Structures are given as C-alpha cells and as structure tokens.
C-alpha cells in the first residue's frame, strides 16, 4: 500500500473514505487552528515519492511538486508560513506517514521511518513537530 495523495484538515473535518487522519494536532501548543495531516492510501494517483516544505504564502513549490494549500501554522500568532509539498516523480513510493510531537528538537522518527528535518511549528512556539515517512526500499 502506498500514499497517493496528501492534505491538511481542520479539527472539525473527518478523513475522506480511503484516507488516514493522523491524531496529532500540527499546531500543538502554538495557539493556532487545529490542523491534522491526512493521506490517501492506494488511490488513483501515482504514489507520492518525496516531501518538501516551503516557507511563505507566495512561495512556489519546486518543479514537479504539488503544494498543499493550507499553511501548517494557520492561525498561530507568530509562526512561519509553511506549506507541505509533495512529488510523484521519484522511484521510491512513500508507504506511510507519521507525525512526531515532542519537547525535544532531536526527537527520533519511529522505527523504520525517516524524519523530515523542518520543525512544522517553526517560529510558532509549542511542541517540536516533525513529519516522518516510511519509504519503499
């Protein structure tokens, strides 16, 4: 099973059928909107193969990447405007996603996962929040 699409939901939204909604608030401790990572497994699109975070509302994703339209620090009084982007052009599909919240900036990824090194709460205060992924070898 592979991740085929990614989105961000506000706290009141449920995951669509065939999608997984992570239980961790992406703005935990930062005073912003309740936001949750959600992803589709085995949808009709090609598998997601890479993740990238861009800064700034008007920032454009790198060539071949799709930008998720929700600011990951939406509603926080002082956080950086961060946007998740993903690509489907690589050779190694992403199999699973996870969010790690911690008071420790060096919090490890779960076993078998790789941690994307940008703190999703950058500049907003609150917990350190990292996106992790498990990729096909």
Automatic annotation (TrEMBL):
Gene3D superfamilies, sorted: 2.100.10.50
InterPro entries: MABP
Domain (MABP) ranges: 1-137
Protein name: MABP domain-containing protein
Naturally occurring in which organism (per UniProt): Kitasatospora purpeofusca
